[in-house]
Amino acid sequence: SWETVLKEKHPEMLHLLQFPYNGEPPKRLVTAKPVTPNPLHFVRNHGGIPSIDKSKYRLDFDGLVAKPQSFTLDDLMDESRFPRMNKLVSVQCSGTRRVEQIALYAGEGDEMINAPWAEGAIGTARWVGVSLKKVIKACGGLVGEGKHLEFYGADTYFKKNSVMNYVVSVPWSKVKANEVMLAWEMNGEPLPKIHGYPLRVVVFGYIGARSVKWLYRIKAIENPSLAPVQSQEYLYFNTQIGKHNQRMTDGIQIQEMPVSSAIMSPWTKQVVIHNGKIHCKGWAYSGGGRWPERVELSADGGFSWYTVPTENMSEKHRYAWRTWEMDLPCDVEGWIEIVCRCWDNSLNTQPLQVRAAWNWGLHVTSSAHRISIYSVN
Ligand code: MTE
Ligand code: MO
Hints:
Distance between the termini: 48 Å
CATH class of the largest domain: Alpha Beta
Order of helices and strands: HEEEEHEHEHEEHEEEEHEEEEEEEEEE
Number of domains: 2
Low-confidence stretches: none
Strand content: 35-45%
Bound molecules: ligand MTE, molybdenum atom
CATH topology of the largest domain: Sulfite Oxidase, Chain A, domain 2
Strand order of the largest sheet: 4-3-12-7-8
Shape: globular
Number of helices: 6
CATH superfamily of the largest domain: Oxidoreductase, molybdopterin-binding domain
Structural class: mainly beta
Largest sheet: 5 strands, mixed
C-alpha cells in the first residue's frame, strides 16, 4: 500500500498510521483551494488497499430487491440506462479534529479506530456517477421489508480475531432523496486506487464512514447492518459516561454530521505581527443537506463576534464546505484566543467548548474552534 500512497498522494501528507494507511493534508494546504486536489484529499482506511481489475469488476445487487443482478462498470456508465450525476460533495470523517478531544482525555485509546486527526479529515471533490436510487429501480425496486442498503467494500480488516470486509448501511430514505451516489470519477479523473477504484459510494451530508470504497456488493436489508463498523464503531455515546458503563446499543449510530468549522490560518502559538487586523482563513461545513450560512470570528475568546463577509466565502453549497477568509480586527498586544463558529441554514451552531461534547468514541469534535496566538500590533 505504501507504493500507492507515494504514487497517489501529495509528498507532504501527514501519515497518521502506516497500516491501515491513514493520512491527512498538512495544515497549510487544507483550504488552499475550495475544491481539494485529489493528492491532498485525506485518506481513511480500516484495512489494505485492494487492487481491482476494471475488466473483471462486477457490482452485485441482492437481498430484498425484485430482480437481484450484477452490473459491470459499463452498465452503470451507460447513459441510456442511468442518467449521470455530478455533484460537489465534502466527505468528512467523524474523527475530524479528534486531537482536541484526545487532549482532554484519550478515552478508549484504540489507535486503529481512533486516528488522531486534526482539521484536515475533510475533503471536497466533484464526484461523477449514478444515483443509487436509479440502480435500485433497475433492480425492480425494494420488496418486502427492504428499508436499508448495505454496502460491501472489497478491503478486509481484523476485528476480534476474524477477518471481515468493510460493511455499513444507510436507510432507504436517504437513497430515495437522491443523496447517495455510486461514483467512478473524482475531480475529472478516474477514482484513485486509494479512494476506492473502480467504484465507491458517496453519501451526501453523512459521516464519511458510510461512503464505502471499493464497493462490490449492495444488499437490501430490513434493519441497519449488524456488521461491526455499523453496529460497534462510529457510535456517539452520552458525553458523561465512561466505557465500562456503556453498551453498544446505547450509542447513536452517527449518520448526519452537525455544523462545524476550523481556523486554518494563523496557527496556534504563532506570533502574528499585524496592523490592527489579523488575516484568518478556514473552512465551515454542515451535514444532512444543510449548509454554512454564517461564519463568525472572535478575537477575545468568544465574548464578541465579527461576521465573515459573504464575499469572502466560497459559494453556498448544499453538500460541500465553504472556505472563508477575513481580516479580523484586533488591537491587543499579547496572547489572545481566536475563536471560530458557524451557523447553518437551520440556525444550528457549535458548542463553545470541546468538553461540552467529549465522548469516549472521540467522534464529532464540532465545538467552536479555538487557537491561541501572540498578537503584535
Ligand atoms: N470504505 C472501505 N471500503 N474501507 C474503509 O476503511 N473508511 C471510511 C470510508 N469508506 C473506509 C471506507 C471512512 S471512516 C471514511 S472517513 C471515508 O471512507 C474516507 O474516505 P477517503 O479515504 O476517500 O477520504
Ligand atoms: Mo471516518
